[in-house]
Amino acid sequence: MAAPSFDLIDIIRNVQKKIGVILSVTVVAALLGVVVNNIKPKKYKGVTKFLVNNPLYGDRNTLFRSYETRYVDYFGGDDDLDKVTSLATSDTVVDRVIRNCQFQEVYKMDINDPKGHAALMGIFKKNFSLKRSEFKDIEISYVAYDPVVAANVSNMTVKVIEETYRHFYTAAKDGMMKSIKDQMTHVDSAIASLTDSLAGMRDRYGIYNIISPARQNTISGDIHGGGKGFGRAIEEIQNVEASKDQMVTDRAHYVSLLNEFAAAESDAIQYIKVITRALPPTGPTGPGWMLTLLVAGGCGLFFSTVLILLIAYYNLINTQEK
């Protein structure tokens, strides 16, 4: 048996017959949408925007360049933005944020319990959002039921990201400084030992002239003395004094390097520049009552129309079978 015909004219006729029902369902759905939108808890979004500075601008080679003039952009490139984006959702940053913002008090969970801690981490990642624009700025936002919490979490996230991003570079510099300090300890010990040896040799042979070849700008006077072993004494003093002078020079260079690394670690050098600080929002986030009214009414209109047509087509099939 062929399927019954149900063309556009039949659809229009059935809609016209039930237009009252369709409009009633549409109005009820729109009103229900507005009521639900008004009674559900309101959510607020705290938004912060910031720029990523070029970390190389605060590097030792940039701060103390004396032999090369190379332009270094103030603003970070795409690679720097990628690093910050990766850090923003890392467990290291999220864990510090939820602890600093007292999530266990806000969401009433035990942060020391593994399940509670995982739940709080999930809550943060669910309500957290990060966007990058074509102007190379980053916008982060956090949605919460309390406007103050939303703003505080957003601002705290930027602070923790900056500290983590800064530590990525300062930790490497700290390692270099520790290596230099360890080497200085060995150099200091060697200088003390050479000084004792050199003082003893000079007293033993009676030679107090500066005879170090390392001091090229120093004019040595005549060396008085003589006798067997005098020439060897001069050579030995010269060797020891040359080694000691070189170590003293190296130590001075180490001190200069330590000062440069210390300057490059200063908190005065910014790695992230906040351009919009999050303030407690005055209005809730999400669609307003007008948009809710239109969406809910449209859904009611669509589903009621489809239901009416399905019922009409089903009745048509039953009539033809009888």
Percent helix, as a range, is 55-70%
Number of beta strands: 4
Order of strands in the sheet with most strands: 2-3-1-4
Helix-strand makeup class? alpha+beta
Strand content: 5-15%
Order of helices and strands: HHEHHHHHEEHHEH
Largest sheet: 4 strands, antiparallel
Provide the low-confidence segments as ranges: none
The helix count comes to 10
Measured on Cα atoms, how large is the radius of gyration?
39 Å
Q: Calculate the terminal CA-CA distance, rounded to whole Å.
A: 12 Å
What's the shape? rod-shaped
Look at the structure and give the mean pLDDT. Answer: 82
Core attributes:
322 residues; alpha+beta; 4-stranded antiparallel β-sheet; 10 helices; 4 strands; 62% helix; rod-shaped
How are the SSEs ordered, and which strands pair?
Elements: H1 8-17, H2 19-39, E1 44-52, H3 60-63, H4 78-88, H5 91-100, H6 103-106, H7 114-127, E2 128-132, E3 137-144, H8 147-205, H9 230-264, E4 272-276, H10 289-321
Antiparallel strand pairs: 1-3, 1-4, 2-3
Structural description of this entry:
The chain is α+β, with helices and mostly antiparallel strands. 62% of the residues lie in helices and 8% in strands. It contains ten helices and four strands; from the N terminus they run ααβαααααββααβα. It has helices at 8-17, 19-39, 60-63, 78-88, 91-100, 103-106, 114-127, 147-205, 230-264, 289-321; strands at residues 44-52, 128-132, 137-144, 272-276. A four-stranded antiparallel beta sheet has the order 2-3-1-4. A hairpin with a 4-residue loop joins strand 2 (128-132) and strand 3 (137-144). The longest helix is centred in the middle third of the chain and has 59 residues, at 147-205. The model has no long low-confidence stretch (mean pLDDT 82).
